[in-house]
Amino acid sequence: MPDLVLPELGSLPAYVYDLGGLTAHTARIRSAVKGTELLYAAKANPDPNLLRAIAPHVDGFEVASGGELAHVRETVPGARIFFGGPGKTDAELAAALDLGVERVHVESPHELRRLAAVAGGRFADVLLRANLDVPVPGASLTMGGEATPFGMDPAGLSECLSVLHEAPWLRLRGVHVHLASGLAAPEMLALTESVLAWVRPWLRACALRPVELNLGGGMAVNYADPADRFDWVTYGEALAALREPEETFRVEPGRAVAAYYGWYVTRVLDVKVSHGETFAVLTGGTHHLRTPVTKGHDQPFSIVPAPGGPSPADRAPSPVPVLSGGPRLPGLPAPVPVAYDRPVTLVGQLCTPKDVFARRVRVERIAVDDLVVFSMAGAYAWNISHHDFLMHPKPEFHYLPA
Ligand SMILES: *Cc1c(COP(=O)(O)O)cnc(C)c1O
């Protein structure tokens, strides 16, 4: 896991993004998948500074709404944009054409008919999103291989062929799949092989050459073991070996690009024991960093002792935290709540038992005023969180330069 050198932080909580690390990481991914087009899925983190840092090292952006489309178009003018997502409105389909989207990933026969209608005489290039009946091994989230609202099963794909026949201004370019997320390279490759085994004969039957195959995102990020990274080199080499002449392969990861380069930095407000369990209450909460709740993991963190706080030499003799309160000798500083060598549950300021960053994780020492630095907070973190719940102040954002 990349180490963070904390910049000068004003108020906490704060997000810190390492744009230099992100840029180098994205460049490494691109060289590993050489020959395959690399898109960044903007929904993982659409922060404008991140998009601009990533842009020179990807072939384009995958957007999943009219909002993302307008945002990416404005933030990274001239970028190639690919528009997917279920439930596109007519206005969004029209915006796709107005803003020069390169490919529309069509999710249903009805959507394809609506695209034909809004095109108004313009050409539109489409990939059909397929939801195939293929085994999806070891995924954390499944978007296909079973009944889901995403894409089309083979019957839906066939129906699209007759729509396309009637609307020759819609140009079929190939197939899009995004069947699962949280797959390591071997599982991802096994899935890709099953997809190709189905898609290639289908496309041959359509007499379509050359063809584009967007193989989706979903490359695994292991929050329990941040050093366990998706093996881009093996994956890239295998894709190169699988690709046939007249095929363009495209991938569109989000999480595995951005997750490692964001940190959420907060401060310990309180340390207390309740029914035998030790809690550290932190400023902020999962309304800023919802990732551990949505994924059901402990967010990895490190503790930076507050300057002037209790040092290990002040180690409490008892196993319970030293809690403030009770009569004190005049002139003695109030004891600072601190816990040593025990499992601690890290929570935020929200009035809900779900506001948990990490549960019963053993720490050597945690005290009031210490900083807690959560790592792996660069993707599906701030932008998926319910910021306004309880109306706490929003975090500040800091960017380590590229
Ligand atoms: C969310 C999404 C992605 C990105 O998935 P990650 O797990 O962040 O890599 C790519 N393609 C589609 C269609 C998606 O919905």
From TrEMBL:
Span of domain Orn/DAP/Arg decarboxylase 2 N-terminal: 22-259
InterPro entries: Ala_racemase/Decarboxylase_C (IPR009006), De-COase2_C (IPR022643), De-COase2_N (IPR022644), Orn/DAP/Arg_de-COase (IPR000183), PLP-binding_barrel (IPR029066)
GO BP terms, alphabetized: lysine biosynthetic process via diaminopimelate
Keyword hit for Thylakoid: no
Cofactor(s) needed for function: pyridoxal 5'-phosphate
Keywords linked to the UniProt accession: Pyridoxal phosphate
Domain of life: Bacteria
Keyword Cytoplasm among UniProt keywords: no
Domain Orn/DAP/Arg decarboxylase 2 C-terminal: 15-378
Modified residues (N6-(pyridoxal phosphate)lysine): K43
Active site: C351
GO molecular function annotations of the record: diaminopimelate decarboxylase activity
Family affiliation: Belongs to the Orn/Lys/Arg decarboxylase class-II family.
This protein's name: Type III PLP-dependent enzyme
